[in-house]
């Protein structure tokens, strides 16, 4: 089962990769919003783990594009960001993300957050 | 140009003077040399000088002081002044270097050359002189020898070659700043530039593809900044700096930066030389280009690298520098029961901190008296007497004195902290001031000083900076630091001269004993400034201003500011009469007249 | 009794220094060497016979040995004219004084620097405590590292002496700057632990990403704690810089707190300069 780890930080992609690989996912890396959309085009993605602040196209723009495209609008998105104020979280959820995980997080918290946004039948 | 004109080379290093003079003479320039301001002034008075080329430090003063002196003097004002500074003696940070260069340009210098030792400084100098002086200067002058060939000294590729080989290696490092967020700017040195972008050595550790801004300070304290992307990174002096290559996005800003740097590096096409010479004559930015300068609110956000504790370095003596070093040593410390929280500023007699009273748990102003004055017994006594006087001044419009104490020999005062700004700050944005508000401040100040004068106290330094408006709108008169009880003896004197020349009374300037009439003059001058938007007398130097206070007739306020009534103009005119006996003799009479203006 | 370490003093200079000494201070003299243990001293005074390149290196090494502690390093020389002090200050000196200056001036300045640093005000504690708590929480959560908060001191500038630093500009209701600064070894250790990998695999890009992420998380989580308070701020993009000796601004009417943390005997520092726009002067 494939998911996208979208973050401009190679470090964060590395951290997330280790955790999700252990959960049985195949992680595809994207360093910005545009790369995320490019990978989505190829199909077969079950989940997108999305950073908010990214160059070229930021996380919010990616959500908006995904939600307005029939092919992607049902793919769950988990936004991961350091900013964890209530209004920020609301903004993300309103835009169409299924979940929000504030940084810093433990492997357990990431696993739990993925569990919340992913339908039971689509877990690895 | 006078046929006998000379270049005047001023530098404190004899060997440097000799080498550079020799090269200039060989290049056909008549040169006079001096190692100090005094020697230079002698030459200026006896010879015709076409250009002054000066070091930043001379044997008897600072190069900037010399520049200021020349620019304030009508006879020498129009002589172009160029700095030639040797890095052998001054190794400054980029911030200091840039601020010095900008300061030089602001003061009227026409060029600023740094001798990096890697270049033949004379060659660079001759190139710049050619841009400043008319082409026929050498022919006109006497010592016509072999002029240097512009071609032979150009190691840079000519225009045609440049189009082919785009990369240009600069002859010496040029400073630039780089930022990721447009707020924090990190200095860098350009190592390589072409029309697409540049390479620089910097400590910003970016990553490939990252968007960054670069900016270059231009004369006139303005910056041009351009958006770029990082295309190359290598760690060159691990771990202290990196070389990064940036590709610039197409923009007018980038073209301006490229052209400016190219000009700085002396790699411009010969055909452009004339234009640059014209630019050099007018170093301030033109309106056409000011649109891309940082907006004022952005400028505000930029970090100021000048240490406010030491910023008086250039306008003060070595003593002042030491006093400021002393105040700096107290930042983040605790004196007795008072914490020095942050530094507010320093004057001629004290450094002021925002303080915290640990027992009463309240903010206070902590005023640390100069250790030098504190150490002199007669001054100590004077300060204590003053403190007694000021502590008696319980008045809502006077900053309260709470406590005095000492740390070893050093005295400090604990005073009411006023949260707000001074009238001087408010004057910078006069739109905030209505005529009615100004009158209200005027009357309040007048009534407060009436109260003060009844205790036989003269403030002696009434000026906009000593009148504060707190954040509740209450006016407070501060800094009775040089206040003296007027006991008729006139013996006590402020340690160093008088208060601000812009508001000083004629008798104060002449060092005569002062009474309340002197304060009335300064109060008049202060509110003249408030109503007119300009001080009553202006000038480029203290001497000029004080001379005007003594001799020049005051332009009636009404003429400067037609909005004010003739009565108010007359009141201020009377307050500022040259002879004390022609002014108001009491604040009561003054307050009565003012109240009538209001009604 | 204040303990001062005098380094590289000639006998003549020792005598000159005596004139500037304050009561209750004891000077111990040593020659400079790489393994000087200076942590227990209240002040270091380094003697500079002639200006030469090495002096910057010595200052750098002494500053490094202070492990972010606010030990004043005074550079003494005997030249008559005012030498440009900025390069020495950038290298890590606190102040540059000359025997040609008045002894009273030097005595007062030395005395000023010997006064112990102040403790934070209640209002400063209110905004520093969340930074301390969150910094520890982030390192614990992301790297399983226990960082201990050691102490705080205050300055009117942010002067960074670590090898690699993450800087965040703050804007909004409050303005200011945050800067976290590490020595190279500790930065690598933390980042390797964050990634559960070997330190040898940490390259420059990962150092960049790691330091950038740490300052991002410190700012992002603390910002949440300030919702509804005058200290609330918005964050910008973090900048990562390498090398020591950077100075970010001088502050008038405000102050920068330097929080020192320790991880297994190694220190790192977090500089916090935060100024509510509505704050009283």
Give your account of this protein's structure.
The complex is a heterotrimer of chains A (124), B (599) and C (281). With 124 residues, chain A is of the alpha/beta class. In chain A, 42% of the residues lie in helices and 21% in strands. In chain A, α2 (33-41) packs parallel to α3 (59-67). The longest helix of chain A is centred in the first third of the chain and has 13 residues, at 10-22. With 599 residues, chain B is α+β, with helices and mostly antiparallel strands. Chain B folds into four domains: 6-140, 3-Layer(aba) Sandwich (Rossmann fold); 159-301, predicted glycosyltransferase like domains (Thrombin, subunit H, Beta Barrel), CATH 2.40.10; 311-415, 2-Layer Sandwich (Phosphorylase Kinase, domain 1), CATH 3.30.200; 420-598, Transferase(Phosphotransferase), domain 1, CATH 1.10.510. Chain B contains 22 helices and 22 strands. Chain B has a six-stranded antiparallel β-barrel. A six-stranded antiparallel β-sheet of chain B has the order 12-13-14-15-17-16. The longest helix of chain B has 19 residues, at 435-453. Chain B is globular. Chain C is of the alpha/beta class and 281 residues long. Chain C has two domains: 2-114, Rossmann fold (3-Layer(aba) Sandwich), CATH 3.40.50; 122-276, Chemotaxis protein chec, CATH 3.40.1550. Helix content of chain C is 33%, strand content 30%. Chain C has helices at residues 11-18, 53-65, 86-91, 103-114, 122-143, 184-194, 204-225, and strands at residues 2-7, 25-30, 43-47, 73-77, 95-98, 148-155, 157-160, 164-171, 174-182, 234-235, 239-242, 246-250, 256-263, 266-276. The two termini of chain C are 36 Å apart. The interface between B and C is large, with 73 and 66 residues.
């Amino acid at each position: 089962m494939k998911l996208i780890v979208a973050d401009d930080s190679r470090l964060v992609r590395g951290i997330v990769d280790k955790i999700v690989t252990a959960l049985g996912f195949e992680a595809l890396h994207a360093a910005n919003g545009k790369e995320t959309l490019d990978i989505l085009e190829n199909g077969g993605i079950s989940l997108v783990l999305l950073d908010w602040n990214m160059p070229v196209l930021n996380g919010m723009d990616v959500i908006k594009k995904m939600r307005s495209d029939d092919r992607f609008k049902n793919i769950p998105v988990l936004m991961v960001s350091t900013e964890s104020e209530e209004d920020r979280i609301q903004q993300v959820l309103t835009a169409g993300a299924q979940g929000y995980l504030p940084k810093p997080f433990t492997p357990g918290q990431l696993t739990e957050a993925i569990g919340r946004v992913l339908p039971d039948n689509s877990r690895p | 140009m006078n046929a006998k004109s000379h270049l005047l080379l001023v530098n404190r290093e004899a060997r440097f003077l000799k080498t550079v003079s020799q090269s200039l003479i060989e290049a056909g320039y008549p040169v006079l040399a001096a190692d100090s301001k005094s020697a230079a002034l002698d030459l200026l008075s006896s010879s015709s000088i076409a250009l002054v080329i000066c070091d930043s430090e001379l044997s008897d003063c600072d190069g900037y002081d010399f520049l200021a002196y020349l620019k304030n003097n009508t006879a020498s004002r129009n002589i172009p002044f160029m700095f030639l500074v040797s890095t052998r003696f001054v190794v400054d940070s980029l911030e200091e270097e840039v601020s010095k260069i900008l300061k030089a340009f602001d003061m009227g210098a026409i060029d600023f050359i740094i001798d990096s030792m890697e270049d033949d400084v004379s060659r660079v100098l001759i190139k710049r002189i050619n841009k400043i002086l008319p082409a026929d200067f050498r022919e006109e002058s006497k010592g016509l020898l072999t002029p240097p060939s512009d071609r032979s000294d150009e190691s840079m590729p000519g225009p045609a070659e440049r189009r082919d080989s785009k990369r240009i290696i600069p002859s010496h490092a040029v400073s630039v700043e780089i930022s990721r967020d447009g707020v924090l700017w990190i200095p860098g040195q350009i190592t390589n530039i072409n029309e697409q972008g540049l390479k620089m050595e910097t400590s910003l550790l970016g990553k490939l593809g990252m968007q960054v801004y670069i900016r270059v300070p231009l004369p006139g304290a303005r910056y041009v900044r351009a958006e770029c992307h990082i295309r190359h990174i290598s760690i060159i002096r691990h771990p202290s700096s990196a070389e990064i290559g940036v590709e610039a996005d197409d923009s007018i800003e980038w073209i301006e930066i490229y052209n400016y740097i190219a000009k700085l590096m002396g790699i411009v096409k010969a055909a452009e030389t004339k234009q640059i010479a014209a630019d050099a004559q007018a170093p301030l930015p033109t309106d056409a280009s000011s649109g891309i300068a940082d907006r004022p609110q952005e400028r505000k956000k930029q970090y100021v690298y000048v240490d406010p504790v030491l910023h008086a370095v250039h306008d003060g003596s070595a003593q002042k520098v030491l006093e400021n070093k002393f105040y700096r040593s107290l930042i983040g410390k605790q004196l007795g029961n008072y914490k020095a929280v942050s530094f507010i500023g320093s004057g001629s007699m004290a450094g002021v901190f925002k303080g915290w009273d640990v027992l009463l748990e309240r903010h206070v102003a902590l005023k640390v008296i100069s250790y030098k004055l504190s150490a002199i017994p007669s001054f100590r006594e004077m300060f204590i007497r003053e403190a007694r006087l000021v502590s008696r001044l319980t008045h809502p419009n006077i900053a309260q004195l709470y406590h005095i104490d000492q740390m070893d020999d050093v005295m400090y005062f604990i005073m009411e902290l006023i949260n707000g700004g001074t009238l001087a700050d408010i004057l910078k944005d006069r739109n905030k001031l209505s005529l009615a508000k100004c009158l209200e401040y005027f009357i309040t100040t007048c009534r407060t000083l009436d109260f003060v004068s009844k205790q036989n106290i003269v403030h002696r330094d009434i000026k906009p900076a000593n009148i504060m408006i707190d954040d509740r709108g209450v006016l407070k008169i501060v800094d009775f630091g040089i206040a003296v009880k007027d006991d008729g003896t006139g013996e006590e004197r402020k340690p160093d001269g008088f208060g601000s020349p812009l508001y000083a009374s004629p008798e104060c300037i002449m060092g005569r004993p002062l009474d309340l009439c002197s304060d009335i003059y300064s109060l008049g001058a202060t509110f003249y400034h408030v109503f007119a938007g300009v001080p009553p007398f202006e000038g480029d130097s203290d001497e000029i201003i004080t001379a005007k206070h003594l001799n020049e007739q005051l332009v009636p306020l009404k003429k400067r500011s037609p909005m004010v009534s003739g009565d108010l103009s007359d009141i201020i005119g009377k307050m500022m009469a040259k002879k004390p006996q022609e002014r108001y003799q009491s604040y009561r009479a003054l307050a009565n007249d003012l109240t009538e203006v209001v009604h | 009794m204040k303990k001062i370490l005098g380094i590289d003093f000639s006998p003549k200079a020792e005598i000159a220094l005596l004139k500037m000494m304050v009561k209750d201070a004891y000077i111990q003299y040593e020659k400079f060497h790489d393994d000087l243990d200076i942590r227990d001293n209240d002040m270091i005074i380094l003697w500079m016979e002639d200006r030469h390149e090495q002096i910057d290196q010595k200052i750098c090494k002494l500053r490094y040995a202070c492990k972010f502690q606010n030990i004043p390093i005074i550079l003494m020389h005997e030249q008559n004219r005012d030498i440009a002090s900025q390069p020495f200050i950038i290298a890590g000196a606190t102040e540059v004084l000359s025997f040609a200056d008045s002894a009273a001036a030097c005595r007062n300045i030395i005395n000023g620097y010997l006064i112990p640093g102040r403790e934070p005000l209640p209002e400063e504690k209110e905004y520093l405590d969340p930074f301390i708590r969150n910094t520890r929480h982030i390192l614990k959560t992301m790297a399983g590292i226990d960082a201990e908060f050691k102490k705080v001191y205050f300055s009117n500038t942010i002067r960074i002496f670590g090898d690699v630093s993450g800087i965040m500009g703050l804007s909004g209701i409050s303005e200011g700057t945050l800067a976290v600064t590490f020595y190279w070894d500790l930065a690598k250790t933390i980042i390797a632990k964050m990634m559960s990998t070997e330190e040898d695999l940490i390259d420059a890009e990962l150092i960049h990403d790691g330091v950038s992420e740490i300052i991002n998380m410190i700012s992002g989580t603390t910002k949440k704690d300030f919702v509804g308070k005058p200290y609330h701020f918005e964050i910008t993009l973090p900048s990562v810089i390498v090398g020591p000796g950077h100075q970010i601004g001088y502050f008038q009417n405000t102050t920068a707190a330097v929080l020192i943390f320790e991880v297994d005997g190694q220190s790192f520092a977090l500089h916090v300069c935060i100024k509510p726009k509505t704050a009283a002067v």
